[in-house]
Amino acid sequence: MKPMVLIVEDEAPLVTLLRYNLEKEGFAVASAADGEEAMLQIAENKPDAVLLDWMLPLVSGLEVCRQIRRSPATRALPIILLTARGEETDRVRGLDSGADDYIVKPFSPSELVARLRAVIRRAQPSAVEDTLSYADVAMDLAAHRVSRGGRAVHLGPTEFRLLHHFLLNPGRVFSREHLLDRVWGPHAEVEMRTVDVHIRRLRKALNIDGCRDLVRTVRSVGYALDHVG
Ligand code: CA
């Protein structure tokens, strides 16, 4: 089961960006544009964590945070407050309202993901997978390490992200377009054959002598992480 994150934010472009990054990292995402909608969604389908913007229409994020903390059903729900404010007093007010953590805009998606994993892990240690694996390949997300059959595999950052995407969806065939979008980002100016170059590197790194090839090329379609070669 993917951990579910509820984004409470009224700025649609930011919601889209957050959703994109969180889904890419293996989270399921729901969103609400104001506090009232957030409370309804939480009551209907309790998320594993809430990303709560401070600046919301009608009721502020701080008040939403207090409401979540008041209900016994949601008292322990991990909350990260998003804000444009960076003052120390704001930080204190944010944490006083019951937020577990506090992140100032603009923030890097990877920092946000790391903090989300941390608050979810604290609340329910089994909910966040720190290790992804397939066949004899294991990826330790916390240590940023990959191994095959217990032996270390050294990957460049792009190959790491490629493998991460494959490990989230083993057996599925992805087109080059999809991989470009998901691994390099929707606005990356990269040629299609760049994907082939990095797939080649990934394959070479994973194929420690004697191991079978786990990267399957599907002619005129794309690539998959697969047993069948
Ligand atoms: Ca806002």
Features:
Rossmann fold; 21% strand; 4-stranded antiparallel beta sheet; Arc Repressor Mutant, subunit A; 229 residues; 12 strands; 8 helices; 41% helix; 2 domains; single chain; binds calcium ion; alpha/beta
- Which fold does the CATH topology of the largest domain refer to? Rossmann fold
Give the biggest sheet: 5 strands, parallel
Secondary structure: helix percent? 40-55%
Beta content: 15-25%
Instruction: Tell me the span between the first and last alpha carbons.
Output: 28 Å
- Under the CATH scheme, the architecture of the largest domain is 3-Layer(aba) Sandwich
Q: Total number of β-strand segments? A: 12
Ions, cofactors and other ligands present here are: calcium ion
Please trace the helix and strand order, writing H or E for each element. EHEHEHEHEHEEEEHEHHEE
Number of individual domains: 2
Radius of gyration: 20 Å
